[in-house]
Structure formats: structure tokens, C-alpha cells
Specification:
The chain is α/β, with parallel strands linked by helices and about 200 residues long. The chain has helices at about 1-5, 10-15, 30-35, 50-60, 70-85, 120-130, 145-150, 165; strands at about 40-45, 65-70, 90, 105-110, 130-140, 175-185, 190-200. A hairpin with a 2-residue loop joins strand 6 (about 175-185) and strand 7. The termini are far apart.
Length: about 200
């Protein structure tokens, strides 16, 4: 239902096919900052795209599985992993229809999954359930306040998140951070600032 969930797999396949690498080759700075202090284990990168965060996690010693509904994206991520000699797996699956096994990962990452409710809530709930004891859930995405105060990102408020909205779908985990953060962005016109939602939660060991 593209109208109810934003862009569908075919739309993203066309976007990925139109360029050699849509996003930067390195990890998202917020993801790197929040994950760097964690002990590597099993990681699940949901809506992984071309694998920028998955590949970085693999290079840091994580056993990574990336999931995305674009076949072109997961094929590209797998090819990059092979070229770099990084052990990782990539699965083509639609998060509207697929959920990870319960308690299956020490880190579950959702970075810039911009979909409306109720899909957003359902994915967050499934992601939280996939966190193993002692594991971490990390959500980072464009915040609704980015529309008025920030740079870039989607212009549809329905696909933008809030800290409170994300936390409302998390159960069984201890929320350690739930806030809006400012992210510096380099543009042709000079430095700018984007506003993101950041939520970090841990399942008690």
C-alpha cells in the first residue's frame, strides 16, 4: 500500500538503480557515536539500505544481518561486504510483513526508517521484541520538528517521528535516552543543522 506507507520497494529500487551509491560510504555519525561503546555481538540493521551502518558494524566485530525491502539495495550491500572482506548477511524482506525472531540480537538498529503510523509503531514493537537480554535498541530518524527548525529530510509530517511517539511503542526495555538531537549537515550554501529523534533502550540482562 504505497499510499499508506510512503515509498514502496519498486520506488526505492528505481532510486538505488539511478546512482552508484545513494548514501555516504561511512556510517551515520549518530549511530557510530551511540554504538562505539557497546560490546560487539549479534546486530540486526533493519531498513539497512545499501548497508552503510551494517558494514561499519561488521568492521567493528559485530555479527551483522541487514534487512531491507529493496533488492537492489541488499544486493549492493552484499557486494560491498564481499569486496571489503566483511562477514555479514543481507536479507530482502518487507518490514510490513516480516518481523525478526524474538530476543535474537544484542543490537537492533533502526536508522532513518521514515514511515507513517501504524506501520512505524508495529516495526518498533517488533524491533524491541528482537532485543536479547542485555541488548540495545537504537532508533534515529528525522524528527517532526525538522520541518520548521531543521534542514533536509522528508517534508511529510506523517513519516517524521518524535521521542514520545517512539517510546510509546517500546515495552520490556529500559529507555536510557529519548530526545531530539541536532545533527550538523554540510550543504552547498554552508553548514546547516538537522533535527533528529534519538531513542536508546536496553533490555535488562
Amino acid at each position: 500500500m504505497p499510499g499508506a506507507r510512503g515509498m514502496g520497494p519498486d520506488d526505492w529500487d528505481r532510486r538505488y538503480a539511478a546512482t552508484e551509491l545513494m548514501w555516504s560510504a561511512g556510517p551515520n555519525a549518530t549511530v557510530r557515536e551511540q554504538v562505539s561503546g557497546l560490546t560487539p555481538g549479534r546486530a540486526l540493521d533493519l531498513a539497512c539500505g545499501e548497508g552503510r551502518n551494517s558494514l561499519w558494524l561488521a568492521s567493528e566485530g559485530w555479527d551483522v544481518t541487514g534487512v531491507d525491502f529493496s533488492q537492489i539495495a541488499v544486493d549492493r550491500a552484499g557486494r560491498l561486504a564481499t569486496e571489503r572482506g566483511l562477514p555479514s548477511r543481507f536479507i530482502r524482506a518487507d518490514l510490513a510483513e516480516w518481523a525478526p525472531p524474538a530476543a535474537s540480537a544484542d543490537l537492533v538498529l533502526l536508522a532513518y526508517l521514515q514511515v507513517p503510523e501504524p506501520l512505524r509503531g508495529a516495526v518498533i514493537e517488533a524491533a524491541a521484541a528482537a532485543v536479547a537480554p542485555g541488548g540495545t535498541l537504537l532508533w534515529v530518524a528525522h524528527d517532526v520538528e525538522n520541518l520548521e527548525r531543521g534542514y533536509g529530510g522528508p517534508r511529510d509530517p506523517a513519516v517524521l517521528s518524535t521521542p514520545e511517539g517512539v517510546v510509546a511503542h517500546i515495552s520490556g526495555l529500559r529507555v536510557s535516552r529519548a530526545e531530539r538531537i541536532e545533527r550538523p549537515v554540510d550543504t552547498d550554501a554552508g553548514p546547516a543543522t538537522a533535527i533528529d529523534t534519538l531513542v536508546l533502550a536496553v533490555r535488562p540482562a
